[in-house]
Amino acid sequence: MPDMLGLQYKLESKAAKWYATIDIANAFFSIPLAEECRPQFAFTWRGVQYTWNRLPQGWKHSPTICHGLIQAALEKGEAPEHLQYIDDIIVWGNTAAEVFEKGKKIIQILLEAGFAIKKSKVKGPAHEIQFLGLKWQDGRQQIPTEVINKITAMSPTNQ
């Protein structure tokens, strides 16, 4: 999996005017577990045994597996230039039309690979967008105002 700081530096270097983001819906649950692996994911709750048949959230290797499978699908489909962190993807460009076409191509590849995309999880093209918790505009990152407001409104816990 890529380093988040490294992704931020790469995105800053693009100095883009337009952005779009795609967040795959329930990405982990889109990935079936191999039949022979399922017994390793069995658990008992209230006296009933259950077994995961999809990649479970909370398992330490799930993010890496999910990221790798999405990355492989995008590479196989010859996706346009983008950055990816697990199931979050960003594209950029100098025009809204360019960004729209890049996003459309990536969505097509992901759908063909069996991933679900909700329209509400696709943002842009826009001059300003949030990606990995940061606001991006003109190749620069900012901490969103609402995050700063929450932090400054916190009361000290050591008094």
From TrEMBL:
Positions of transmembrane segments: none
What domain of life does the native source organism fall in?
Answer: Eukaryota
Question: Reverse transcriptase domain spans which residues?
Answer: 1-136
Pfam families named in the record: RVT_1 (PF00078)
Q: What is its EC number?
A: 3.1.26.4
Please name the GO terms that the record assigns under molecular function. Answer: RNA-DNA hybrid ribonuclease activity
Name the family the entry cites.
Belongs to the beta type-B retroviral polymerase family. HERV class-II K(HML-2) pol subfamily.
Name this polypeptide is given:
ribonuclease H
